[in-house]
Amino acid sequence: SQQGEEDPQALSIQEGENATMNCSYKTSINNLQWYRQNSGRGLVHLILIRSNEREKHSGRLRVTLDTSKKSSSLLITASRAADTASYFCATVIIQGAQKLVFGQGTRLTINP
Amino acid sequence: DAGVIQSPRHEVTEMGQEVTLRCKPISGHNSLFWYRQTMMRGLELLIYFNNNVPIDDSGMPEDRFSAKMPNASFSTLKIQPSEPRDSAVYFCASSNGFRGGAHEQFFGPGTRLTVL
């Protein structure tokens, strides 16, 4: 079963609005990462948040992590048409081989 | 830096044929990952190497799939014989660090494989 699950599966908003995507996971993690994928392209790393961190910022991106609820959120402020893409959370679990497990992603559409 | 390089970008083949996908990781990176992406199953890790050694191949679907990393700058993923259900986009990614997949990964553009 998926370690990470994003919510919603699809999100459509107007340019300039904020977009919030959520990710839930099942087992204890080492860190959680967010990636973006434009249509027909490879994934691009956006931000990494460690299990002992609660919030992290990068430009217009804000990521929060709540390990007690096993959830994370990605907020994109002042969205732009170029933000249209799929966004994936990926977790690195503590036990076993250190590898990323991806969720199914949120398809974000920014309407001009 | 040129980033992760994959070839070919597109491959169309007939069922039963051998398919070889190639990857050149970013110079200096010590971990390399092969993923498969489909609409039904999402992004799945097939295998990953650390310092050219396979660490976790639990995601390799079956014996028809094999992967090698003969040196730090080259890896192959081979499917023999190929089947229509192998149709997917295959990504290679690399990272640098002592904890395998726990670090930021850099993805290649992918190879879109279609098996007829």
Q: What does the model show?
A:
- The complex is a heterodimer of chains A (112) and B (116).
- With 112 residues, chain A is an all-beta fold.
- Helices cover 0% and strands 60% of the residues of chain A.
- In chain A, the strands form 2 sheets. In chain A, strands 2, 4, 5, 9, 10 and 11 form a 6-stranded mixed beta sheet that branches. A 5-stranded antiparallel beta sheet of chain A has the order 1-3-8-7-6, with no helix packed on it.
- The mean pLDDT of chain A is 92.
- With 116 residues, chain B is an all-beta fold.
- In chain B, 0% of the residues lie in helices and 53% in strands.
- Chain B contains no helices and 11 strands.
- In chain B, strands 2, 4, 5, 6, 9, 10 and 11 form a 7-stranded mixed beta sheet that branches. Chain B has a 4-stranded antiparallel beta sheet with strand order 1-3-8-7, with no helix packed on it.
- In chain B, a hairpin with a 2-residue loop joins strand 7 (65-71) and strand 8 (74-79).
- Chain B is globular.
- Chain B starts with a strand and ends with a strand.
- The mean pLDDT of chain B is 93.
- At the A-B interface, strand 4, strand 5 and strand 10 of A face strand 5 and strand 10 of B.
Helix-strand pattern of chain B? EEEEEEEEEEE
Task: Give the count of helical stretches of chain A.
Answer: 0
Major beta-sheet overview of chain B: 7 strands, mixed
**Weakly predicted, low-confidence segments of chain A:** none
Please compute the radius of gyration of chain B using only Cα atoms: 13 Å
Q: Please report the distance between the alpha carbons of the first and last residues of chain A.
A: 37 Å
Any idea what the shape of chain A is?
A: globular
